[in-house]
Amino acid sequence: xxxxxxxxxxxxxxxVNGNPFGPAKAVVRAAREALDAMERYPDSRCTDLRxxxxxxxSVPEDCLIFGNGASDLIFTLVFAEKPxxxxxxxxxxxxxxxxLRAADCRIKFHFLxxxxxxxxxxxxxxxxxxxxxxxxxxxxxxxxxxxxxxxxLCRILEVCEERHVRVVLDESFCEFACETQGDTMxxxxxxxxxxFLLRAFTKMYAMPGLRLGFGIxxxxxxxERMERARQPWSVSVPAQAAGIAALEETxxxxxxxxxxxxxxxxxxxxxxxxxxxxxxxxANYLFLKSEADLFHELGKRKFLIRDCSNYRGLSKGYYxxxxxxxxxxxxxxxxxxxxxxx
Length: 342
What we know:
The chain is an alpha/beta fold. It has helices at about 25-35, 45-55, 70-80, 95-100, 150-160, 175, 185-190, 220-230, 235-245, 250-275, 295-300, 325-340; strands at about 10-15, 65, 85-90, 105-110, 135-140, 165-170, 195-200, 215, 275-280, 285-290, 305, 305, 320. About 40% of the residues lie in helices and about 15% in strands. A seven-stranded mixed β-sheet has the order 2-8-7-6-5-3-4, with helices on both faces. A four-stranded antiparallel β-sheet has the order 9-10-13-12, covered by helices on one side. Strands 1-11 form a two-stranded parallel sheet. The chain starts with 11 loop residues before the first strand and ends with a helix. The model has no long low-confidence stretch (mean pLDDT about 95).
């Protein structure tokens, strides 16, 4: 994973994809004030957070489930469903495969193609077979960062409903790419009991250390099974308080999205000038390919990036970098200029 600042100390961290502005002051304040209640157990139902999120997303409260980050919900979902066979496009977030293997699920891999910029295409439809129980998708994808087109997602969901395949759609980075809820699959997930939508506060609100994720599904029996498959106090008091405060930060989200879009485009142009291949991205990070050993060379210069060679379907030479503040991005570009001889 990215973000291993405990091993790689005193480095500027481009390996983890958070908000370049850090957490909003109101979110930090809410988490700090909540520490006064640390002698109490957390509300296992996340009552206040559930109400606030339901209002914000116009979602029925009983269609929401919360967890200790999105990864917690991935494992909880898989343990609750116990799929026997799943379809997984790769490269993708490693926790999907880890959760499926922990549940002794057979995995059918769908390899995304470099010549298609590692984008999901209609080829996936031919692999949705009757013997599948679950399909994991991510939009924007990780590590590449591209959004799956809504027409294709709707077609996938239609085919999966016909064949009784559970679709797990991870939209953890959607707020960096989408201006409205209409740009996501939120409404479609509520209309289809076969779709589980996964989101997180971790990325946009820059709170990975607090851990807070949530799922949306109209299949209430699924959510009940998930609740039975987990321990009851997975979301801490500070995390719940921070989540409620974060939901009020609409201006913060809009500011971040606009900045990331502009800075991402600028970085892409500068990287391409250095002869580095940059794949299209809709998120707050860029996926790269280079013959230079960027991980070690940048490490010598105190920059930490994500070496993607351990992603299934990738090999040495692929990297992911976050979009950070302009000054930090400029220092990274200068280091890359030294390495690539630009």
